[in-house]
Each structure stands twice: as C-alpha cells, then as structure tokens.
Write a structure and sequence with these properties.
219 residues, mainly alpha, Endonuclease Iii, domain 2, Endonuclease III, domain 1, 2 domains, 13 helices, 0% strand, binds iron/sulfur cluster, DNA_glycosylase, iron
C-alpha cells in the first residue's frame, strides 16, 4: 500500500506541539550521552542520570573520559543497566577521543563513515547510532525504532521489518531536511505513546483515514 510520508508528517505536525528538533538536551554532547542512556529505559530515568552528571559539572567529554568508571556508574544508576552502560559510554568516549572530542571535526566526516565507526563500538546498535548521527552530529540519518515499525505496519506499509529496509524507505521518500528528520521521528514517538499505542485509540487518530488497520477494522 502506498503511504504518503509527507501527508502523515503534516497531520502529526499539526497535532503535536513539539519543540523544533524534538530531542531534549542543552548541547550535542548531552544528546549523545542521552541517546546511549535511553536504551531499555524511559526518558525520566535518563533525565535523572543526566542531571546527576550536570550537577557535578561533568557534562563534557574530557571530564567523563577521565572520570573513574565506578563514579560514572553511580551517576547513571537511575537509567538502569548502569554498569554495562558505563562501559558503553567509556567505549563511545574512547572513539570520540580519536576526533579530539571535537564536534567540529566530526561534522566534516561523511555520515556513512561515522555510522560504520559507531556500529563498531560495543554497545552502539543501529537505533543508537542513528540517534547520535541525527540529533548530535546533524547528519541525515533517519532513526527507526519499535514505535516506527508498529505504527507504519498498521498504516499499511508492506515492507520487511528489518531496520535497514525501513530506514531506506524513509530516506528515499523524504526531502533531505535535517529538521524534518528530527521532528518526524519525534512525532512518531509522540503519536505512538499517545494514540497509536499497544492498544490503539483509532477513533481519536488524525491518521485514521489514511490507515489500513482503521479501514479494515472500522469500515
Ligand atoms: S488509525 Fe489506529 S492503527 Fe491507524 S495509525 Fe491511527 S491509532 Fe494507529
């Protein structure tokens, strides 16, 4: 079934009052750390960890790089799996050090090179890599998560559920616009949490007249 991605975007954009760029964070580094901490937990828990780091004035790459791992574990404890995540953060920082902890240097690199390097870091999967690329490095890399797959398969997107097929579908059918990519993923998350939930609230959904599931169940 054909899905007009921009039609879906415009309907969601008019429905949700999201901040431009959507992902919360004071700077790119905080976004990068948040993208890793959000694995397997909710954002409230991530925020507690980020606040712990900020309260100690450690929210910068060098400070976290040189911080003993047991101290880092304590700071990020609210995010769960904190011993594993502390190791992952250290792995990410070890890689970032090869770029002199510089976003300016990173920004000059091509997306695919950075993506491959990120995916080679233990603890960074595709969703985390793409979140870092898009929201922290401002690279055109669409983020796919479980919400995206659930919502778009309900809408009627008949493609294989593997990550890269989904990602390519979005990237091949959307204008190459960073802010659009950022907002679109955010809108999918908002809509999936509020309306297209595990048990969807189809009658309240702005997308219902575009949706295969709605047409099948309610017509
Ligand atoms: S109509 Fe229902 S299934 Fe379709 S997108 Fe909306 S909430 Fe999800």
């Amino acid at each position: 079934m054909y899905i007009d991605l921009m039609e879906v975007y415009n309907k969601l954009y008019s429905e949700y009052n999201i901040p431009e760029g959507w992902w919360p964070g004071d700077n790119e580094f905080e976004i990068m750390i948040g993208a890793l901490l959000t694995q397997n937990t909710n954002w409230n828990n991530v925020e507690k960890s980020l606040d712990n780091i900020k309260k100690r004035n450690l929210m910068n790459p060098e400070s976290l790089y040189y911080l003993p791992i047991n101290e880092l574990e304590e700071l990020i404890r609210p995010s769960g799996f904190y011993t594993v995540k502390a190791k992952y953060i250290k792995n990410l920082l070890e890689w970032f050090k090869t770029y002199n902890f510089s976003f300016e240097v990173i920004n000059k690199k091509e997306k695919e090179i950075l993506r491959n390097e990120l995916l080679n870091i233990k603890g960074i999967g595709k969703e985390t890599a793409d979140s870092i690329l898009l929201y922290a490095f401002n690279k055109l890399s669409f983020v796919i998560d479980a919400y995206t797959k659930r919502m778009f398969s309900r809408l009627g997107l008949n493609i294989k559920v593997d990550y890269d097929t989904y990602k390519n579908f979005f990237e091949n059918n959307l204008p190459k616009d960073i802010m659009l990519y950022k907002n679109y993923h955010g809108l999918i998350v908002e809509h999936s949490k509020n309306i297209c939930k595990k048990k969807p609230l189809c009658e309240n959904c702005k997308l219902k007249f575009l949706c295969k599931t709605y047409k099948t169940n309610f017509n």
